[in-house]
Amino acid sequence: MSCEIIAILRGITPEEASPVAHALVEAGITRIEVPLNSPRPFDSISRMIAAVGDRALVGAGTVLSPEQVARLRGLGAGLVVSPDCNPQVIAAAREAGMVTCPGVMTPTECFAALRAGADALKLFPASLIGPEGLRAMRAVLPEGARVYAVGGVGADNFAQWRAAGADGFGIGSALYKPGLTVEQVAERARELVQAWERSEP
């Protein structure tokens, strides 16, 4: 899993789940998130786990409660991404042995998430914070804290963000949005992976 891109598949349907998951993995993206405000998200996640669970880390985004974590655990999901820093969600994910990535925007939220046991930080919305904001945060964050920039990030600014200290990215509409074909998603995925490889600091 060397390409640190999380695919955010907001709006995906269960019927698309398996072919899109296969396309992403074949392109080199092996972290997949289905936001829970998508149509029948648990069905999509279950299908993706069956399709690529041996080759990818599959889970959910917009996870807001321990109850949702428990349901994901029952499916065999391995990733919990949230828009906020909820210590109860982080604790539930940790107890379930899942990777947890809560949303943060300020240094206070970053440290609260890390103290609660977060595996990584979802810097969101990254477009408002900017690479310079992340660079400033990196001066105080613990060494080894993993940060994913999400929101307004794309292939054209991967290098700038990585130079500022981003470990990876969450990519949504630049990769998938309802109405795109599997082939279009696959092409976008390949382009993003190539951009990732070019952006090595």
Automatic annotation (TrEMBL):
Signal sequence region: none
UniProt keyword terms in alphabetical order: Carbohydrate metabolism, Lyase
Pathway as given in its UniProt record: Carbohydrate acid metabolism
Keyword Lyase tagged: yes
GO molecular function: lyase activity
Keyword Aminoacyl-tRNA synthetase on entry: no
Family statement: Belongs to the KHG/KDPG aldolase family.
Subunit field text: Homotrimer.
Protein name: 2-keto-3-deoxy-phosphogalactonate aldolase
Species this protein is from: Albidovulum inexpectatum
Lineage start: Bacteria, Pseudomonadati, Pseudomonadota, Alphaproteobacteria, Rhodobacterales
